[in-house]
Specification:
two-stranded antiparallel sheet; alpha/beta; TIM Barrel; 10 helices
């Protein structure tokens, strides 16, 4: 038996790191050429991206063929549109739309081969007060969502965000433990944890067995977007060392946002190389990058 090592880290790219004007062929080819192994599709708060969930099978088939031809699959989905339509809102039309989005997203993921749908931890819309009823409704609707996700083999994973309801996994995990399904896990963003003054090590270690994938980005206190890698306050070496020590063996997703005034290809390429160097400094070679050859 021979053990071989593959140094290609499983690192994905957030769709919005490249200009919206690109078509899917161009976007995926750029990601591939920059060294990424998959892409995370964004279904954000805009009508245009939410409408993707209503595509017919012909459009979905076309996109899947593009991913196959370029060799860059869509493995994860960032369903941040629930920030606009949270499933705990006291406004019935908003809650209903939020549930419709999640159900559509699960079907979309099933058709496209997407493994993980990342849900944002928002129970109410910005400006609406979080209450015991909104938190209860969030849990009830989450349980309804997981029934379909489990049937179709799609994992739902909740991301910690920049609000009081979901700024730590101490607050999110009670829902996951109550539902108790292998198809509902967490999708940590340690940049968000740092920005919200959470104990990154405690959060990652405490819930190690529930981590589906990792969002990687730099942040500053209270600022969770558009901070270039190395310009924020996130301690990447510490975070990667913690993940290594707990045996995390999933994918990393680099979250960035395109800037039409800059060379976005250079940014995504250099950012990946910067992160890979941090991983190497911690001797981080996940187990799935070793494979066995039997004679």
């Amino acid at each position: 038996m021979t053990v071989c090592k593959n140094n290609n880290f499983s690192i994905g790219l957030y769709e919005k790191a490249l200009p919206e004007s690109l078509d899917w062929d161009e976007r995926l080819i750029l990601a591939r050429d920059a060294g990424y192994s998959f892409m995370e599709i964004s279904i954000d708060e805009t009508d245009e991206r939410i409408e993707r969930l209503k595509w017919d099978m012909a459009k979905k088939k076309t996109l899947r063929e593009i991913t196959e031809n370029t060799g860059v699959p869509l493995l994860t989905m960032c369903l941040s549109g629930n920030r606009r339509f949270p499933i705990g809102s006291s406004f019935g039309d908003i809650q209903k739309k939020g549930m419709e989005m999640i159900i559509d997203a699960i079907w979309f993921a099933s058709h496209l081969g997407i493994r993980i749908v990342q849900l944002a931890a928002y129970d109410v819309v910005v400006g609406e007060k979080s209450t015991e009823l909104s938190r209860e409704a969030f849990g009830i609707n989450l349980r309804k969502s997981i029934n379909l996700a489990a049937t179709l083999g799609v994992m739902l994973a909740i991301e910690n965000v920049d609000n009081e309801f979901g700024d730590s996994f101490d607050k999110i995990m009670p829902y996951i433990k109550a539902i108790n399904s292998p198809w509902l896990q967490i999708y940590p963003d340690f940049g968000n944890l740092a920005a919200m003054n959470q104990d990154v090590e405690k959060q990652l270690r405490t819930y190690a067995g529930h981590i589906a994938a990792i969002h990687v980005k730099d942040t500053k206190p209270g600022i969770v977007r558009n901070i270039a890698f190395g310009e924020g306050t996130v301690d990447f070496l510490s975070a990667f060392s913690i993940l290594k020590s707990i045996g995390f063996n999933g994918s990393f997703l680099l979250e960035m946002w395109a800037d039409d005034k800059k060379d976005n290809f250079a940014i995504i390429k250099n950012s990946r190389e910067w992160i890979v160097e941090k991983l190497r400094q911690t001797s981080y070679f996940p187990v799935n990058h070793y494979y066995l050859i039997t004679q």
